[in-house]
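User: Quick sanity check before I run a bigger batch. Here is a single chain. Can you write out its predicted 3D structure?
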Amino acid sequence: MFLVERLESIIANGKKLPLTNNVVVDQVAALDLIDQLRVAVPEEVHAAKRINSQGERIIENAQQEAERIVARAQEQAAFLIDERGLTQAAEEESRRIVDQDEGKGEEVRRGADEYAAAVPIGLEGDVVRTLQSIKKGIALLDERRAMLQAGDGGTGNGELTDFDLDEEDAAAEAVRP
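Assistant: Done. Predicted structure follows.
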């Protein structure tokens, strides 16, 4: 800008030719100034191009970084959404399993209670039948003993007959549970 102002000053201070808009300028000073402008302008143009190029690179890098940030944010959001969905599904499945297991546990407890009540009742019936069989066996043996002692039954010599042995086996079977 300084060189342009000096060129303007040389032209403005030049001698005016009468009846025209032309001026006479110092040729050496003007050419020297033009040479300085030729040298200065390319440097300034190159500097401006460098600055412009750097600005474009900075903008391009900023856009790429912004795109990376947006992509990463979208990935993170998708991950969080998926994770949230998986977490909810896992919680629902866990509640379903707990509910199902509580129902099965209640059913098992009910079955165990029924079994625990049925076993003593069944045992009581078995014990009553066994006791009755034992009493019948004792009564049968008492009858035989009385018959043998009285001499009315059997061979009269105190030995048991085959008929007596069959009855004794039946009494023993009745005693076994």
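The first helix runs from residue 2 to 12.

User: Great, the batch can go ahead then.
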